[in-house]
Amino acid sequence: MDEAEWLACRAHGAMLEFAIPAKTKATIRAHRPVRDRKLYLFACAACRATWPRLADPRLRSAIEVAERFADRGATRKQLTRAWEEATAVARPRGKAAGFATSAVRHLCASFLAPGFVANDVRDALGHKAGRPRVTDLLRDVYGNLFRPAVVVPAWRTPDVATLALAAYRERAVPSGALDGARLAILADALEDAGCADATILEHLRGPGLHVRGCHVLDAVLGR
């Protein structure tokens, strides 16, 4: 895949195959848990897009634990426990358990092989008005792999650091979307600090969906 293909791609499977490091893919194939922050945050953002379908609080709690785990705010033991409780939702048989079973599949993907969550949420994300595509989420989290966002240390003024951290922490729930107004203010602060990178500034000011793991915000925060 070249740069033009990455930027225009609508095949999330191909994008994930290209984006996920070989070591991580080997771990996933061996059915072992991975700690890949980008993958976890992407998977959680995708699961949050199906939030209205997650009627059982154990499913919603599992997403929140996985997000904390991604940022080292939860232990693997807590994550495993959350997965076990979410899995229990799918045990009842019958039509009533249909949505729960589907949701647990998303969550299992998040815990055991985060990249595979895209296959389960594709329809919910890609074919309903107002909902983001899986590929749009991927590009927000991973950015342009051929031209990574680079933030010069001098741009990380106290104001920029404070605004960036607030933008990461304060988000809309349950969607998990970052506040576009906060990101636009952060772009202004970066520009005042000397940033003239149009790609960085335009991404923060752009109308698209931004979630935790956003590649530009991560670059500002040094994550």
Describe the model.
The chain is mainly α and 223 residues long. It is built from 13 helices and no strands. Helix 4 packs antiparallel against helix 9 (134-142) and helix 6 packs antiparallel against helix 7.
Strand content: under 5%
Alpha carbon gyration radius: 18 Å
Please report the total strand number as a whole number.
Answer: 0
Regions with little confidence, pLDDT below 50 for 5+ residues: 93-101, 111-121, 123-127
The chain-level structural class is mainly alpha
What level of helicity do the residues show? 55-70%
CA distance, first residue to last residue = 25 Å
User: What is the arithmetic mean of pLDDT?
Assistant: 80
Largest sheet: none
Shape: globular
Report the order of strands and helices: HHHHHHHHHHHHH
Number of helices: 13
Keywords:
223 residues; mainly alpha; 13 helices
Summarize the structure.
The chain is mainly alpha-helical and 223 residues long. The chain contains 13 helices and no strands. Helices cover 61% and strands 0% of the residues.
Draw up the topology in text:
Blueprint: H1 3-8, H2 12-19, H3 22-29, H4 37-48, H5 57-70, H6 76-89, H7 98-112, H8 117-126, H9 134-142, H10 158-169, H11 180-192, H12 198-205, H13 215-221
